[in-house]
Structures are given as C-alpha cells and as structure tokens.
Design goal:
Elements (H helix, E strand, L loop, with lengths): L1 H21 L3 H21 L3 H26 L11 H24 L17 H11 L2 H21 L6
Helix pairs in contact: 1-2, 2-3
C-alpha cells in the first residue's frame, strides 16, 4: 500500500510541478506550487517523518505561499503574452528531458526489488521534534542564521521594489 501511495503522490508532485512551469497565470502557478508542496508533505508522512511533513504544510504551503501570492498581487503581474515558438530551444530541451527520463528508467530497472524496508529515522531516545531541533541549532546553526538574513534582505527588497514613485 505504501508503494502505491508513494507513486500516487510522486506523480501528483510531478504533474503540479510541471503546471508551475507551463501555466501562464502567476496565480495558477503559485496554487500549483501549493499542491506540489502538499504532495511532498504526504511523502514525508509516508517516511514516518510526521513533524517534517506538518512543517512542510504549515511553513511552505501556508506562510511562504501566502507571501508569494501577496507579492504577485502587490506587483500586479499580468499573464505572460504568447511568444512564438523557438524550435531549437524546444528540441534541445526535449533532448535533455529525454536523457533524464532514460537515466531514471535505467536506475529504476536496475533495482532488484522495491520492497526494501526503510531505515529508522531516529535512534528512539528522542522524539522527532527534539531531534530536528538539536540538529538544526547545533550542526546547522550558521546556515540557519544565513537563511534568516537572506529572507530579511528579500523582504526589504520586495518592499523597496513595490514602492510607488511620487511625482
């Protein structure tokens, strides 16, 4: 059953991820990204990483996407106009996609079995939340602080870019 759910959520993620790229409306692309985040959260839950799955929904599908939609509405981005077809770019992109799909098929076909037991995530002494917190604030403290500064700079940049010029 887990394998079936894995394939369902993976296919949904790939479909909505493709919709993020191919849809012309920025709002539709953002909503497709939300659905892709929800599929990723479901995959985390399948791996028994409940805390990370819930944080995925709360932080990314909730807060970050609200911020994206706010910025889209603030900047008044219109739907992209239709451009003429660039044949060499489409052929090159198709070759790259075909190569990646061929490599994925080769890797999948070389696997002896899909029914491999997944390893335990933790050692069992601590719960999931404590283990994530310990790792985040000890091993990855500097990257965590750098990401916070980058988000602050991005927020200030959006406010400056969206400011109306006074004439």
């Amino acid at each position: 059953m887990e394998l079936v759910l894995f394939w369902i959520f993976s296919i949904l993620m790939l479909g909505f991820g493709s919709a993020v790229i191919f849809l012309r409306s920025p709002v539709s692309s953002a909503m497709s990204l939300v659905m892709s985040f929800l599929g990723l959260a479901a995959l985390f839950v399948l791996l028994d990483a409940y805390f990370i799955g819930i944080i995925q929904v709360l932080v990314y599908a909730g807060a970050v996407m609200v911020l994206f939609l706010f910025i889209i509405m603030l900047l008044d981005i219109k739907a992209e106009r239709r451009r003429r077809l660039n044949t060499p770019a489409w052929i090159g992109g198709g070759l790259v996609v075909g190569g990646v799909v061929a490599m994925l098929v080769k890797v999948v076909m070389d696997q002896p079995a899909f029914h491999v037991m997944k390893p335990e995530i933790g050692d069992g002494m601590f719960d999931d939340v404590r283990q994530v917190g310990e790792t985040l604030f000890t091993t990855y403290n500097l990257p965590f602080q750098i990401i916070g500064v980058l988000l602050l700079v991005a927020t200030v940049g959006v406010v400056i870019l969206s400011k109306k010029e006074i004439k």
